[in-house]
Amino acid sequence: MILKELYPDINFIFLDEIDSTNTYCRNLTLDDFNNMTVVISDVQKDGRGTKGRRWSSPKGKSLLFSILLKPKILISDLSFIPILTSVALNDTFKAFNINTYIKWPNDIILDNKKLCGILTESKIINNKLDYIIIGIGINVNVEKEDFSNDLKPIATSLKISTGNTYDKNEILIKFISIFEENYNELLNNNKAIILNKYKANSFILNKKVSLVSRYNSEIVTPIDILEDGSLLVKDIYNNKRNIVSGEVSLRF
Ligand code: BTN
User: Fold this and answer.
1) Distance, CA 42 to ligand 1 centroid (Å)?
2) Does the beta carbon of 231 lie inside 6 Å of ligand 1?
3) pTM of the full structure
4) CB 108 within 8 A of CB 114
5) How far is the CA of 199 from the centre of ligand 1 (A)?
6) DSSP states of 162-224 as a string?
7) Rounded mean pLDDT of 141-147?
């Protein structure tokens, strides 16, 4: 199946090699664009992850792409985009009978290890959202020996965990249709539907986890995820508080 025929309104750009599909999208915003654009690359020389980390993947074995959108949403809904994207990714894997979970804020977990990550970037001009870039890296056919020694214990791929080889194109086709459905739910103000799916597939809700910040580590139990994307946790004294992503990481 050809993506361009299935989704004639989406502008697809296929690249063999690029520094980062997110950076490529950012440069596209200098031109006028209206329709959703999806940039896919076989390899990235300078792939970027969250918290300023690098995201490296062997050539051809990962699905590396970014979605560039002129959003029709309010700035206050921006924090919902990673929630919506992780639900769409999780539902995509479920459609292939792969049992994934969502680890707050937006990692997809398979076999207790990270399968894919999301890096969302946006620009606001005069209190209005100008664009959103949603960068997604999925470890599809990556082999164990492709991961560096520090990643081996914490990262997985569809191939490592299921033993099967997957067609990246089929995964992308499925993901785009589910993403569009979820995005339309957000436009129609049906956030609760998406948030409920997020919670139902959470890897961390009601489990004891270590909340690790730059300065300390503490045992907490996440009890809810709110519409603004924050996490409500209960500490060992039963005090509740809200955690915003970016500040902390969760470990088991
Ligand atoms: C994370 O650290 O969990 C987020 C990783 C996001 C990686 C993807 S790969 C495609 C897109 N381009 C980038 O440079 N990063 C994102």
Assistant:
1) 13
2) no
3) 0.95
4) yes
5) 23
6) HS----HHHHHHHHHHHHHHHHHHHHTT-HHHHHHHHHHTBSSTTS-EEEE-SS-EEEEEEEE
7) 97
